[in-house]
Specification:
The complex is a heterodimer of chains A (179) and B (83). Chain A has eight helices and no strands. Chain A folds into two domains: 71 residues, Rna Polymerase Sigma Factor, Chain: A; 97 residues, Arc Repressor Mutant, subunit A (Orthogonal Bundle). Chain A is mostly helical. Chain A is elongated and about 65 Å long. The longest helix of chain B is centred in the middle third of the chain and has 19 residues. In chain B, helix 1 crosses helix 2, helix 1 packs parallel to helix 3 and helix 2 packs across helix 3. The chains are: A mainly alpha (179), B mainly alpha (83). The interface between A and B is large, with 59 and 42 residues.
């Protein structure tokens, strides 16, 4: 089978996987495209030890990990500005930022409007924070493995998530529960 | 301050840590003592877990046949360019 036929046969599965893993259509398309371009360069070395599909998927998976590594590597200052927004000097909640009671019911997660607010609040996060918050679900792996694969220290990882979640929670509260 | 007492800042950090990593015995105890006494952080913990569920659900994405066709076309073109 030629590479052109592989494109016809496997693009759907590869794209669906990439989309599931990065949750961004444009990025997913680029990753699949890069996978085929890499395959074109290496196809002479493909001896058929595995099926073409398995081979293509292994190239794609490497590209996905690289994608995350780059995103998470983007320099972003971990300053304490977020903390001073939410906490006073002693580390207690500022009165106006103190979490209030939510009537958070599981069924709310199916509410399209609520999903919209959540998405808006996720998109408002700095890109790197947004990626870190989603990594657990995108990679379907635990924290230790994620940190190893994308080359970030666990401390750094949860400190980013901590800042991201403070902001995300506050945004959802402001835009949904107080509305 | 007694080492078992956490600030809310530190407590919320441990809550986030616990959602991705295993806490040590001491950390677990510290967090438990704190959330027992602090309504705001105990709400935070529940809400944070709730948001995690929302985040996991938000990752589902669909694509159209049309998208796929276009993608195949672009890739085929790039492949013939690179030859």
């Amino acid at each position: 089978m030629s590479l052109t036929e592989w494109v016809e046969s496997y693009t759907s599965d590869l794209y669906s996987w990439a989309l599931h893993k990065v949750s961004d259509p444009e990025q997913a398309k680029d990753l699949v495209q890069d996978t085929f371009l890499a395959a074109a360069e290496k196809v002479q070395g493909f001896k058929g030890d595995s099926t073409p599909k398995t081979w293509l998927f292994s190239i794609l998976n490497h590209k996905i990990i690289d994608f995350y590594r780059k995103r998470v590597r983007q320099p972003a200052r971990l300053d304490n500005q977020v903390f001073s927004t939410f906490f006073d000097e002693g580390g207690d909640w500022k009165v106006e930022k103190r979490p209030s009671q939510w009537s958070e019911d599981e069924s709310l997660l199916d509410d399209v409007e609520f999903q919209g607010v959540l998405k808006k609040c996720m998109d408002a996060l700095p890109e790197k924070w947004n990626t870190c918050v989603k990594l657990k679900y995108l990679m379907n792996k635990n924290g230790e493995v994620i940190c190893q694969e994308i080359d970030i220290t666990p401390t750094n990882f949860w400190q980013i998530i901590h800042r991201a979640k403070l902001q995300l929670r506050n945004c959802v509260e402001e835009n949904w529960f107080k509305n | 301050m007694h080492t078992l007492f956490l600030s809310c800042l530190k407590a919320t950090e441990l809550i986030e840590k616990s959602l991705h990593f295993k806490l040590s015995g001491k950390e677990k105890l510290q967090l438990k003592m704190h959330t027992m006494m602090c309504d705001a952080c105990s709400s935070y913990e529940k809400q944070s877990i709730f948001l995690e569920k929302g985040i996991s659900l938000s990752q589902k994405a669909d694509f159209s046949e049309d998208d796929l066709k276009k993608l195949k076309l672009v890739i085929s073109e790039k492949l013939s360019d690179s030859k």
